[in-house]
Write a structure and sequence with these properties.
Elements: H1 14-68, E1 82-84, E2 94-96, E3 100-103, E4 112-117, E5 126-127, E6 132-133, E7 139-140, E8 152-156, E9 162-171, E10 177-180, E11 191-192, E12 197-202, E13 205-211, E14 216-223, E15 228-236, E16 238-247, E17 261-263, H2 278-282, E18 284-298, E19 309-313, E20 319-323, E21 335-345, H3 347-351
Parallel strand pairs: 1-9
Antiparallel strand pairs: 1-2, 3-4, 4-13, 5-12, 6-11, 7-10, 8-9, 8-12, 9-10, 13-14, 14-15, 16-17, 16-18, 18-21, 19-20
């Protein structure tokens, strides 16, 4: 058979090889770019989801605790008195009887929330049948319903700024007397007259919420018997907590309570010239709070994140958009943030007996 030969050599030329490599590199760069963008979007979405989950949990937990605030603290007239649980000089020897207290952080740092409530069902306060002198062996009451050994009784007399917290050591059988655990030096010699209130707090619920340096929502529970704080954490990624009181500042008695002023601190809500007295605490109806959650994923686009905002009371008490400072965080503009805010009515304040 005849053999045919080409005038040129057969195969891939150097030009063909370079074109193929160029196309392959372009395709590889496109695939890598898509993968990088997809991974960045995935991490951003996952980080936002984590922040949302942690924020929802933390916000729900705080809202539930605030709804318990003030439970079983007795008549509203007792609010504002100084609870004395140990002699002067003992750590945490005293605290103000209030459903909650806000401690403002310095220069925009996270606030601290303290919540107080009784650990028992809210029964009407018992009354002293006869005067009781602090340090005495027996307290005679008109009823011991709901009181048990180990219960904590808060004694309150109108006009007395001090309310001692005593622990029941023994309860009489068939009578209305209780034997308190005598604490040496606790308001020794002070007399609480007939008809003074004895409020059964059971196991006192005294808790403090704050944001620690590791960006966790921290809970501290106080053991009023041992005088120690027990610490636990409840949510990650929390970088700020801002709180405000909601007061009814209208003069006189109102048939329908409503919040007319939002404030960072206690004010003279009843207009009697005294700040943080019983009348002011009685006008505390709600709390607003904002949780600032930080995504665990650093921004890829650059450090240009705007300051988060929430609705907060201004100098007049009206709600206006307000920036939340994050200066206490390193390179805070390099992260994404989510703000969860809500207001919680203090139902135990609204439903309390006068």
């Amino acid at each position: 058979m005849p053999r045919y030969t080409s005038a040129h050599a057969q195969g891939i030329s150097l030009v063909d090889l370079m074109v193929g490599l160029s196309i392959g590199m372009i395709a590889t760069l496109i695939v890598l770019n898509v993968m990088v963008m997809f991974d960045a979007r995935r991490r951003t979405t996952a980080g936002s989801t984590d922040a949302q989950i942690h924020g929802t949990f933390a916000g729900g937990w705080l809202a539930r605790e605030l709804r318990i605030a003030g439970h079983g603290l007795g008549p509203l007239s007792a609010l504002g008195c100084t609870v004395q649980r140990a002699p002067v000089g003992t750590p945490d020897a005293s605290f103000v009887l209030a459903p909650l207290m806000i401690t403002n952080g310095t220069a925009g740092t996270p606030d601290t929330l303290t919540i107080i409530a009784a650990g028992e069902q809210a029964l009407p306060a018992s009354r002293l049948v006869s005067p009781y002198t602090m340090g005495g062996d027996l307290i005679t009451l008109d009823s011991t319903l709901g009181i048990a050994n180990g219960s904590q009784l808060l004694l309150h007399e109108s006009g007395n700024p001090d309310c001692p917290l005593v622990r029941v050591a023994a309860l009489s059988t068939g009578g209305y007397t209780v034997q308190p655990t005598v604490v040496s030096g606790l308001l020794s010699g002070s007399v609480f007259g007939k008809d003074s209130s004895a409020i059964n707090l059971g196991a006192l619920r005294y808790r403090r919420y704050s944001v620690d340096t590791t960006h966790q929502l921290r809970l501290e529970s106080f053991d009023s018997v041992l005088g120690t704080w027990i610490t636990s954490t409840h949510a990650d990624g929390v970088v700020n907590l801002q709180l405000q009181y909601g007061f009814d500042t209208r003069s006189g008695s109102q048939p329908s309570p409503q919040v007319t002023s939002w404030r960072d601190m206690m004010i003279d809500a009843d207009g009697d010239g005294i700040v943080a007295d019983s009348g002011d605490w009685q006008r505390l109806l709600a709390v607003r709070f904002a949780l600032v959650m930080r995504s665990p994923q650093r921004k890829e686009e650059g450090c240009d994140a705007p300051a988060p905002t929430w609705l907060a009371g201004d100098a007049t008490g009206a709600l206006v958009p307000t920036e939340i400072r994050l200066d206490h965080l390193d390179q805070w503009r390099c992260w994404r943030y989510r703000v969860l805010q809500t207001e919680v009515p203090l139902r135990n304040q609204l439903w309390a007996e006068l």
